[in-house]
Amino acid sequence: MFSNQLCLLCNEEMRQELSWKSVFLKVTEKVCCETCNTKFERITGDRCRTCSRTLADSQDSVCYDCIRWEHDSTWSGCLSSNHSLFIYNDFLKEIIAKYKYRGDYAIAGAFAPYLKQYLAELEFDCLVPIPLSAERLRERGFNQAKGLAQMAGYSCQELLMRTHSEKQSKKSRHERIHAQQVFQLCSEEVQGKQILLLDDIYTTGSTLRQAAKVLKLAGAEEIKSLTLAR
Amino acid sequence: MSSILEISSTEHSPFSFSKDLHDHLSGRSLLALEIPFETALLTEHLQQGFVTAKPGVVHDKSKWLCGRCGSTDQRLFASFPCSLCDSDCTYCRACIMMGRVSECAKLYTWSGPEWVYPIPEKVMAWEGTLSEGQQTASDQVVTSIAANAELLVWAVCGAGKTEVLFRGIESALTMGKRICIATPRTDVVLELAPRLKAAFPHIDVAALYGGSEERHKQSPLVVSTTHQLFRFERAFDVIIIDEVDAFPYSADASLQYAVSKAKKAKSSTIYLTATPSKKMQHDYRSGKLSAVKIPARFHRRPIPVPELKWGGNWQKQLQQGKLHPELKRWTLQRLQQNIPILLFFPSIAVMDSCLPLFQQLHPHLQSVYSADPNRKEKVMALRHGEFPGLLTTTILERGVTIHRLEVAIIGAEHDVFSESGLVQIAGRVGRSKDHYRGNVTFFHYGKSKDMVEAVSHIKRMNEEAHKRGLLDVL
Ligand SMILES: [Zn+2]
Ligand SMILES: [Zn+2]
Ligand SMILES: [Zn+2]
Ligand SMILES: [Zn+2]
């Protein structure tokens, strides 16, 4: 018997509307149901030129946080811009947690169409996922940023590795920013390259800037970043 | 010569296993991540045969099978480039919320000596009395537990089914048996645990649900959500399954798997429900499943029989922003008499579009749905008379007991209202001795088979109760 495909996010059966069109044309395969799809909130409208945050006041083009980062000589010029796709709402929080912490790799497939579209528009030489520590990788079995790229049909270059454990949440913003170097380079081939960093969530931007700085010092020309949520 | 000595010396000093690991793993089936012990300790126990391991997900006859939840729905298996086994590793998405089980992940279980507990001198403190119907059922529960047999306790809503278990649990505990009461709902776990603790004060009662702190505790008496059963293997001598019919058909197979995995080879299974599934009723009639019925409520009054009323094309009426005059009258009558009401709808969408129409009748009418964060508060408010009534979906069909409550269903012929759901909804009414009558009305646009069956179900139970002399004649 023919069984309906399940929504990747809620596991509900998706009704296939049989019409002449779907019989003759191969309809692009949907991975999530309409109910789930509508729960994603795209970041639209006025946003910070640097970090993609939605701006309340359309007078500014760069948010206060980014201005602060750029005024700090340690970080100035490291990360030229960040793009984020979705607002980190409760729904996305739940989905990303299931993906990352429960280890449901297949969920990356739900984001693949969106990421594909974005990646096609951005210019870069290397796509670099934010690495996990060896300990985290052992726990989870995969790197969530790399998984997003793979499911979108892109291969990554793992140019960076963690030097320390990543217990971020326990540190204050100050500590995080002034912490010792978190990443180190594992390949020297970054000279003159345009790099796109990839991560699941943009929180304070400090992780991405830490990574960007290492790459910048090694001679990368420009570093941008792309995250699923912010 | 020396080899003989070695053999005899090992015979005389058997492997001394870790008490802590025994406590943690006995009767369980867990992933390495769920076992907070040194890898070396686990390996040693594996080598000595005190712990066994099996692959989490296996490929059998070109089909994937999950060793934890038993899922074989091929749509819920996916693979990922696993950095642990360095290959494309298949995992189960059906039980992913309990952490990933994959091809390279092992499920560990204790295979050494069984876990035992000290049996207190006096097991039970409960001294309540049972109705005649309850007593018959209680006796059969005791017999079935002693015989490691299966039993269906078919007790109408309001029969007092929990008390029926007490003697059985007492007898099992006296024999040092391990008992699990499994229910689909966390609310029920939370409500039942303190009652059991009070009834069996010297027994360690564990309440297990997602996020519960007692998850790793060993105890003789466990109250668990059915979900948590997946973490058990050959643990229980008695499994009592509450509201077996509350599961959607798709979940039924996985529940069966969980139960058969969690119980010991020789064990007793007690099914407890007001509305057994068609299959269970069939198994009972054909003699495959023994059952005991409690057809009467504790208060010895018959169960209100639902009235079926033509409600017209409710979907069309809604589009026109109208309520059927009969439905309007039914609602207004109760609002005027301050009778709390529950109005059941086939879907959230229908309910939402009806709410403003009902609020024209009374501005304080509210709606409640499954994901409603204020669900509990709203039901409490209805119970305390702060709201005159609630609009709801099938989520409130079970477990809600409100004094003087009356209910109506709008679109009762809809597929979401199964026979058992309808019997449960009707079962909300007439729960107390001084208000045992109460009205239940199914507004419909053409009677469904389930509606007719629900009505005859209730009538049959009342007749049987009458015949057995379990009702007070007025
Ligand atoms: Zn969905
Ligand atoms: Zn910004
Ligand atoms: Zn599973
Ligand atoms: Zn693996």
Automatic annotation (TrEMBL), chain A:
InterPro entries: ComF/GntX_DNA_util-trans, PRTase-like, PRTase_dom. Coiled coil: none annotated. Residues 169-229 form the Phosphoribosyltransferase domain. Pfam families: Pribosyltran (PF00156). PANTHER family: DNA UTILIZATION PROTEIN YHGH. Belongs to the ComF/GntX family. This is ComF family protein. The lineage of its organism: Bacteria, Bacillati, Bacillota, Bacilli, Bacillales.
Automatic annotation (TrEMBL), chain B:
SMART domains: DEXDc (SM00487), HELICc (SM00490). Coiled coil: none annotated. InterPro entries: Helicase/UvrB_N, Helicase_ATP-bd, Helicase_C-like, P-loop_NTPase. Residues 331-474 form the Helicase C-terminal domain. Pfam families: Helicase_C, ResIII. One of its GO terms (biological process) is DNA recombination. Keywords: ATP-binding, DNA-binding, Helicase, Hydrolase, Nucleotide-binding. GO terms for molecular function: 3'-5' DNA helicase activity; ATP binding; DNA binding; hydrolase activity. Residues 142-294 form the Helicase ATP-binding domain. This is DEAD/DEAH box helicase. It comes from Peribacillus psychrosaccharolyticus (Bacillus psychrosaccharolyticus).
